[in-house]
C-alpha cells in the first residue's frame, strides 16, 4: 500500500508538471485576450512532434534535451505570432461564440496538418529519458526524467513566469491589460503588443509541455485533445486567468488522476472532471478566481 | 493647444457626440458640465483615443490625434483620470503611479523627479504607497487615480467627474489639491467634467455645457464672492 502510494504521488507530480505547462499558457492567454483558445492543445501536440523530429535529426542522445528546448522555442516563436496576428487579432471585438468557433476551426486545421506532416503511425523518441537514467526512491527505480526534470521544469517555469509578470515592464503591462484593457491603454500600454507577446508566451509554454511529454509517450494523432480537455479542467477549477492557482490545481488534478490510476482505475478518466464539477458547484469562479463585477 | 472640431462619436450604433467643438489653450482651465449621459465621459475618452471618431477631428498642438495611437497620447503630455478610477487592483499605489512613468521610458533621475513632484502634491499617498489599490477607499482611489494621471499629464490633464462619490470632507481635500495644482502648474491645461458645476468654479476659467452630445453653452466661469 505504502509503495503504491509513493508510486502514485511520483507519477502524479510528473503528470502535474506537464499539465501545468499547458494549462498556465491557456489561462494566461485567456486572462489577457479573453479568448478561450481551443487550438491550444494543437500547439502542445505540434511541440511534441517537432521535439521528436529534432531528437531524430540530432541523433546523439546528449543533444536530445537541447532538441526539446529548440522545439518549444521554435513552435512558440513561429506559430504564436502567426496565429495571433493572422487570425485572433481579427476577432477580438467579435462575439465569444464566434471566437470559440474560430479557434475550434484552427484546432481542426492543425490536427489535419499534423497528420499531413507526421503521418498517423505512432512515433516514439525516448532519448532524453535514457540520457538522464534512473533514480532509486524507497527501493523503487524511477526515471530521473519524470521524477526530476518534468516537475523541476514546471517549477522553474512557474517561478520565472511569476517573476516576469511582477518584475518586468512587459510583465506588469500584461497584468494591467488583464485587469482593465482600456485603463492600460490610457496610461500608455500598447495593448496590441501585449496581446502578441502574451499569445507567443502561451504558445511557447504549450509547445514546451508537448516537447517535454514527447519522450514519455507514443505520439499519435489526437494527443493534443486529451491535454486540452484536462487543461480546461485545470483552468476552470483554478479560476480563469489564475497563474499560481493553475499550478496548485494542476498538482491537485495530477495527483488525483494518478491516485485513481493506482487505487480505482475505473475512475481515472472522470476524477479530474468530478473535481472540477465539485469545485464549480461550490465556487463558480473557481478555487482561486474572484467574481467579476459587471461594469454597467 | 487642444481643439475638438465637430467631433462625432457613435457607440454600438447610438450617436453619443454630435459635432462637439471645444478649444483649450495652454494654461486654460475648462469645465465640461452636463447631466449623466450627456457625453462628458465620451468626450474625454475620444481625446484619449479610447473610442473611434465617426466624424470631426481632435488636434493637439495642431497635430491630428487620429494619427497618434491611443497608447502614445500619454507621451504627448496628456494624463487622464477616469470617473471610476480604474486602478489596477493587485498593484500597490506606488506601482499604479509609477507604471505610466516607466512606460514613457524616462531616464531614472527624471522619472524619480516626476514622481516626487506628484507625491509632493498628494502627500497622503506616500503613506499608502505600499497598499494594494484594490484595498483603497473610494476617496483614496480618487487621489491615486489623480496621481497616476499627473505623472503623464504634464501639459493636459483630463479629470472625469473627480468629485463624484466623495464624502464632503474628502471633496474639500480634493478641491484643495486641485487649487494647489492649478496654482503650481500654470502652463498645464485642464479639462474637468462634473455634473455639479459649482464644485469646479474655483478651478476653471470657462464652463462649457454639454447636452445630448452637443455643446449648448460656453461662458466664462462666474467669479466667486469673496468669503
How is the secondary structure organized here?
The complex is a heterodimer of chains A (296) and B (227).
Chain A: H1 2-33, H2 40-58, H3 64-86, H4 96-118, H5 127-132, E1 134-137, E2 140-143, H6 144-167, H7 169-179, H8 181-186, H9 191-213, H10 223-238, H11 243-263, H12 271-282
Antiparallel strand pairs in A: 1-2
Chain B: E1 2-11, E2 14-24, E3 29-33, H1 40-48, E4 55-60, E5 63-64, E6 78-81, H2 93-103, H3 108-121, H4 124-127, H5 138-152, E7 156-160, H6 168-184, E8 189-194, E9 206-211, E10 214-220
Provide a descriptive summary of the structure in words.
The complex is a heterodimer of chains A (296) and B (227). With 296 residues, chain A is mainly alpha-helical. Chain A has helices spanning 2-33, 40-58, 64-86, 96-118, 127-132, 144-167, 169-179, 181-186, 191-213, 223-238, 243-263, 271-282, and strands at 134-137, 140-143. In chain A, helix 6 (144-167) packs across helix 7. The longest helix of chain A has 32 residues, at 2-33. Chain B has a single domain, classed as 3-Layer(aba) Sandwich (Rossmann fold). In chain B, strand 7, helix 6 and strand 8 (189-194) form a beta-alpha-beta unit. In chain B, helix 2 runs parallel beside helix 5. Chain B is globular, with a radius of gyration of 17 Å. Chain B starts with a strand and ends in a 7-residue tail after the last strand. Chains A and B meet through helix 7 and helix 8 of A and helix 2 of B.
Amino acid at each position: 500500500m505504502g509503495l503504491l502510494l509513493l508510486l502514485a504521488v511520483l507519477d502524479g507530480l510528473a503528470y502535474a508538471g506537464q499539465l501545468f505547462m499547458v494549462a498556465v499558457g491557456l489561462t494566461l492567454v485567456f486572462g489577457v485576450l479573453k479568448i478561450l483558445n481551443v487550438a491550444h492543445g494543437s500547439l502542445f501536440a505540434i511541440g511534441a512532434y517537432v521535439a521528436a523530429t529534432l531528437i531524430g535529426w540530432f541523433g546523439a542522445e546528449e543533444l536530445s534535451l537541447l532538441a526539446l528546448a529548440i522545439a518549444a522555442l521554435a513552435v512558440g516563436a513561429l506559430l504564436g505570432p502567426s496565429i495571433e496576428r493572422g487570425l485572433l487579432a481579427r476577432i477580438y471585438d467579435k462575439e465569444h461564440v464566434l471566437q470559440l468557433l474560430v479557434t475550434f476551426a484552427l484546432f481542426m486545421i492543425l490536427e489535419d496538418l499534423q497528420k499531413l506532416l507526421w503521418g498517423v503511425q505512432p512515433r516514439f523518441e525516448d532519448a532524453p529519458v535514457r540520457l538522464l537514467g534512473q533514480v532509486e526512491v524507497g527501493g523503487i527505480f524511477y526515471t530521473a526524467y519524470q521524477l526530476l526534470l518534468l516537475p523541476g521544469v514546471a517549477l522553474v517555469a512557474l517561478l520565472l513566469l511569476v517573476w516576469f509578470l511582477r518584475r518586468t515592464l512587459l510583465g506588469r503591462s500584461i497584468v494591467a491589460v488583464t485587469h482593465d484593457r482600456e485603463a492600460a491603454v490610457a496610461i500608455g500600454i500598447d495593448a496590441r503588443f501585449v496581446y502578441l507577446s502574451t499569445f507567443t508566451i502561451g504558445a511557447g509554454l504549450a509547445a514546451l509541455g508537448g516537447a517535454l511529454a514527447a519522450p514519455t509517450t507514443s505520439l499519435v494523432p489526437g494527443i493534443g485533445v486529451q491535454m486540452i480537455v484536462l487543461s480546461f479542467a485545470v483552468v476552470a477549477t483554478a479560476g480563469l486567468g489564475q497563474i499560481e492557482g493553475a499550478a496548485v490545481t494542476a498538482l491537485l488534478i495530477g495527483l488525483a488522476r494518478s491516485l485513481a490510476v493506482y487505487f480505482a482505475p475505473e475512475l481515472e478518466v472522470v476524477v479530474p472532471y468530478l473535481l472540477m464539477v465539485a469545485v464549480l458547484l461550490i465556487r463558480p469562479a473557481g478555487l482561486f478566481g474572484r467574481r467579476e463585477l459587471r461594469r454597467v | 493647444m487642444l481643439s475638438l472640431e465637430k467631433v462625432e462619436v457613435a457607440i454600438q450604433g447610438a450617436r453619443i457626440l454630435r459635432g462637439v467643438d471645444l478649444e483649450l489653450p495652454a494654461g486654460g482651465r475648462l469645465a465640461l458640465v452636463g447631466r449623466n449621459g450627456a457625453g462628458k465621459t465620451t468626450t474625454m475618452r475620444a481625446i484619449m483615443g479610447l473610442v473611434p471618431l465617426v466624424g470631426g477631428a481632435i488636434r493637439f498642438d495642431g497635430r491630428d490625434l487620429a494619427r497618434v495611437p491611443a497608447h502614445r497620447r500619454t507621451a504627448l503630455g496628456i494624463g487622464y483620470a477616469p470617473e471610476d478610477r480604474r486602478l489596477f487592483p493587485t498593484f500597490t499605489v506606488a506601482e499604479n503611479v509609477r507604471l505610466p512613468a516607466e512606460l514613457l521610458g524616462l531616464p531614472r533621475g527624471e522619472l524619480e523627479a516626476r514622481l516626487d513632484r506628484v507625491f509632493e502634491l498628494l502627500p497622503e499617498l506616500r503613506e499608502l504607497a505600499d497598499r494594494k489599490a484594490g484595498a483603497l477607499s473610494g476617496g483614496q482611489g480618487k487621489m491615486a487615480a489623480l496621481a497616476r494621471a499627473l505623472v503623464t499629464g504634464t501639459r493636459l490633464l483630463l479629470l472625469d467627474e473627480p468629485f463624484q462619490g466623495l464624502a464632503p470632507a474628502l471633496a474639500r481635500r480634493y478641491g484643495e489639491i486641485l487649487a494647489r495644482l492649478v496654482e503650481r502648474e500654470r502652463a498645464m491645461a485642464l479639462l474637468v467634467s462634473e455634473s455639479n458645476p459649482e464644485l469646479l468654479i474655483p478651478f476653471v476659467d470657462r464652463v462649457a455645457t454639454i447636452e445630448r452630445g452637443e455643446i449648448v453653452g460656453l461662458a466664462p466661469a462666474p467669479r466667486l464672492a469673496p468669503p
